[in-house]
Write a structure and sequence with these properties.
This protein has five helices and four strands. It is α+β, with helices and mostly antiparallel strands and 207 residues long.
Length: 207
Amino acid sequence: MRRYLGSLVLAAVVLVALWFLQQRDAAPPSPSQPSATSSAPTVAVPAPVTPSPAAATPTGTTSTSTSSPQAPAVNPVEPEGDLVDPTAPATARDEDQAKQFTAYAKAAEAFMADFARPATVTEQQWWAKVALHLSEQAVTAYEGTDPQNVPFTTVTGPATIVPSDAPSQLLAIARVPTDAGWYRVEMTTTGDGIRITRASPESGGQR
């Protein structure tokens, strides 16, 4: 009887052991706890790429950072037109300017006729006539002039208006022939009319 009981107990132990083994194999594995260092996903950061000098310079070009750029060659420009003859008469642009030129020419002739070295009148009489033609600045400049030092004694021909850079209403220049050579007479227009600002012998002028 004891032999049978021992066999039964042994068989029961074996069955219990097999049952435990089956339960262990069928149970799902327990999830592993993530470590503290792997709680956040790891993202790979690309390292900065430094372009090489060859990549920064376009193919086929040569760096010129150490040399200064050369200025483009400039061809000389020839002046246009002919040189203006300083003794050639000025050309009026319209009828009004032509009348203005005529008035200037007459004023230059009248002044030079009175400015010429006198033969009979006194110095005071000579100056009284000359001063009427002059601007205020010219009166100061010419006052005290000895008329006997004036080189010419008479005007020998009509005055000619010559080109000037200044507007004709501000300044006009006339060439006046005398028995001592050509004179250049500079004139301006004031509230009192045309006034002489300067008269001087023309260097190299013809008689």
